[in-house]
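Q: Convert this sequence to structure tokens.
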Amino acid sequence: MKYLIYILLFWFGASNIALAQNASITGTVTDENNNPVEFVNIKLISLPDSAKVKVQTTNEFGQYRFNELPAGKYALVSLLIGYDKNVSESIILLQDEKKTFKVSIKSTVLKTAEITVTAKRPLVRVEDGKMIVDVENTLSNSGQSAIEVLRKSPGVFIDQDGKIQLKGKSGVQVMLDDKVMYMSEDQLANLLKSIPADQIKEIELITSPSAKYDATGTAGIINIKLKKGAYEGWNGSTNLSVGSGKFRKSSVGANLTYKKNKIFFNTGLQHQNSVNYSDFYNDRNDSDPTVLNKRIYNSTQYEMPFTNTNFNLKGEYKVTEKTSFTFDLNDGFGRYNWHGNGFSKQYNQSDAVRSSFSNKDDGYTQWFNVYTSLGFKHKFDTNATVLDGYAAYNSNFGHEEKLQSLIQFDSLGADAKNPFYFKNNLNYYSNKYNAQLDFKKKLGEKIKIETGIKGVHLDDNNPNNITITQNHAEKDVSNYFIYEENVYAAYGLSYLNFGKWNIQAGLRVENTQTKGTLSLIDSVFTRNYTNLFPTGNITFVPNDKRSHALMYSRRITRPEGDQLNPVLNIIDPYNAWGGDPYLLPQYADNTELTNTFFGGGLVASANYTYVKNPIVWTNKLSKVDNRFINGPRNLEFQKSFGVTISVNAPIFKWWQTSNSGAYIYNQFVGTTDFGKIDNQMGGWTANSTQTFSLPKDFTVEASGMYNSPTSYAFSKSYARWQVNLSVQTKIWKKKASIKLAFNDMFWTFQYGGSNQMGTSFQKSGYRWDNRTVMFTFSYRFGNQLMKSE
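A:
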């Protein structure tokens, strides 16, 4: 790592520092009726080589702006589905000159007098190897959370516990505004539930990240991009969502931005207050004639009040035209209560009720998350020589109390006078520190290089104070699990341009050091390992309408603290879960071919992944007490093959269609407590959104999705689907909007599945409060126009 630092310092000193350029090109894009056109992709190219310099998307007033340009000769290329491609005349720009240039584009769709014409950004598009889902312009997202939006995204599957899969693979790294959220699955699920969709601009799905990104996440990266102000001066927005599913839902928030000369400042506050609901059942049958219970059936319904407040603050200050500093603060705190009531029945080998339970599960968890970072960026010259970096701190801490009581009844329904109690008092906290430094430089017009270093330190503390009362005896099974992890990384990345061909090649090296401690029994385990992660990308762009990319990346998913923690968590007398301290990391080799046609109107991709040591959750059966213990384990390998197709196009000027479908085939091979398994099955998903622009600023959106039966590891899931309907109108000179959204209208989007473990066959089902009616009001205020400086 020290040699890499020497190289960075050498480049820092050897770079030629030129005078900053402050020229700019601004303007508007209009249609043939001189109306401003939103969401037009404006590409600024240099002449005579036609190399891409910058890309922007016009705002709702059709405005674009390119700043900090060196003197030279340029042209503007305008692209939008449903409109002819437009190439401007040449623009000669002198040093520090500011020019305004108006662009006019013509529609390729027949005119209609009855319908108002409104240009729409594709709901799904591909840019620079990323599939981007437009959230802010999807009406059905109103009043929902980030986790609900992700469930509707192409190739994303989230199970009933909040575990995320991307294109049939587990191990997904989640980022918020390009920053990694180092959280456990439970912490991440709480964060995603706390981010309202009304704060999200778009979601990036990156299945083959370059060496610049952390190698963590065998399935790839999901990057959630929040909304930011883009206009000069003061501007902001407020939003209010109220509605109901089985229980009430509400959310209120505000966002404020100031942008002037050297200063950019953005802050937002969002508060949610809702009551959620879930309904769970599990039905287990065992064909082994020696087991005590041939069948165990249980069902529990939960009512879950939920409050959460999320605050963010970010800003940038330009010390000079070459140097700027940034800061970022994201805080969230909330409380989640649960009140569960259920019952359970156990049947003997003669199918008669042997005993039964009534179950009460009550508790709460409250948490506080803090993320803060400081960064800088320095431009040495106008030839893309840049040094930037940041340091960040991420803290999660909270308190949880759980009391579960089961009253047992005999075969005649009489109280057996042998209650079961499970008490857990947990004060958990974790700290994450990370710092990163990146350097970029262009070597001539055809070559660009990047290199960087990064360090991450994590420590998790989980003091579990647990007591169990069973057979009239209380037992203390408390323990204190401490997990520490350090990852040190360095990478190099090169970009080569040969006309219509672009080649990207990179290599990342990561050293991992982990330590787990069970303090109450004085048990320690450690690991230290180093891995290389190559990445590559070959792109062919014959014209502005078509592109083809072949991508490769090697990734890793390290076991999380919860997966390594062997402390057993009791669900009931017959079910429990716990981690495995000997769990190994899983490695994945991803290959993907992506083809884009008609300027993004049609995107088709095929991917293949081989995973070594895949981490899956499986059961083992204790014959002593007939208890299933669920926990993670490594299998031998997983193979995944998938095909994804996305179609986004205007059928008419007033009708925009966005559709995507994916077929995924998985194979899992390994050895379990129930013997060798080779489980393989294919499945497919489909999403469709139809947007209709009507007179008087009304918009109607109908959407739906379908997931076919599929399998993952040992489980087979049943089909599920949903239909959504939304309507929006704009008022007060388009500064305010009113939305009414009906989500999962038939309450059909729920989890159901089965698995076979040796002689035990298990069916389970889970549904949550997904059928909702939400009313949303939003209002924008302040300056909504770009100004020339």
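Residues 314 and 670 are 47 Å apart (CA to CA).
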